[in-house]
C-alpha cells in the first residue's frame, strides 16, 4: 500500500447529501452525458440517488477517508447539489475560491455556512475567501474543479475551454492562486465542446488519465502529454467510449494513515481493460463505487461528488 504524502492527494473530502436530486434541464443544454426520460418518478430517482450517495460515503469512510458531509435543503430546489466540486475549491494556503455557475438553478448551491462549519466544527483554517460569483452577471463562468484540474505539486492548472469554462477568468484565477495556466479544447462524439475537464481527465500524484482522442488539435494533444510526462505523470490514455463511461472522472484520495485510493464509479471500472487497471493499481488501491443513477440523471460521476478539502488545519 502506497503511503507517500502529497499535496495532490486529499485526505479529507466534502460531500453533499442530496434531498431533491434529479435531471436538470438547465445543465443538459451543455452536458451530453445526461439522460432525461427513464420512466421513473422524481421520488424514485431521489431515493436511488440517496442510496448510491450513502453507500459511496460509507465505503469511503470504511477505508478511513475523512468525509465531511453536509445535507442539502429541499428549498431552493438544487437538483445538482450532489456535485459540490463545481462551485468551490480549497487550497493549502488557506484560500477558498467560489466560482460562477452557468445554470441559474445551480447558483444557490454555494453555501457560506459550509465554509464556516469546516472552520468551526472540523478545525480547518481559512485565510481568504475569493468570490467570483459576480461574474455570472457578465455571462462568464468557471465551474470549480470540474472546469479546472489543479496540479498542486507542480503549480500547473489544466482547463478545457467550453461554455462553462471561460479562458480569461481561468487565467485570472491561476494568476491569483499562483498556478501556471494550461488550456486546451476537447470535443465529444458529436463534435460539441466537452463541458468540464474532469470528464476527460484525472490527475493523480504520479499518473494521469486522459481521453486524448477528444483533443482534436494535434499540437494541443502533444503539449498536454508533454506537460504531464515532464511533471512525472504516467499517462493512461482512455478511449472516447471509456470517457462516456466516466473513466476520466476519478479522484485519488488517501486516509489518515496515508493509504491511497483511486475512487471511480463501477461503470468507469468496468469500462477499463486489464492493462489500464494494472497500471492504475500500481499507484493506488482501486475503489469502484456504484453511482449509476447519479451518472445517468446528473451527467456527472463520483469525482464530481467529492470536493477535496486541501485546507491546512488550524
TrEMBL record:
Domain of life: Bacteria
Record-linked Gene3D superfamilies: L-arginine/glycine Amidinotransferase, Chain A (3.75.10.10)
InterPro entries: Amdntrnsf_FN0238 (IPR014541)
Name of this chain's protein: Amidinotransferase
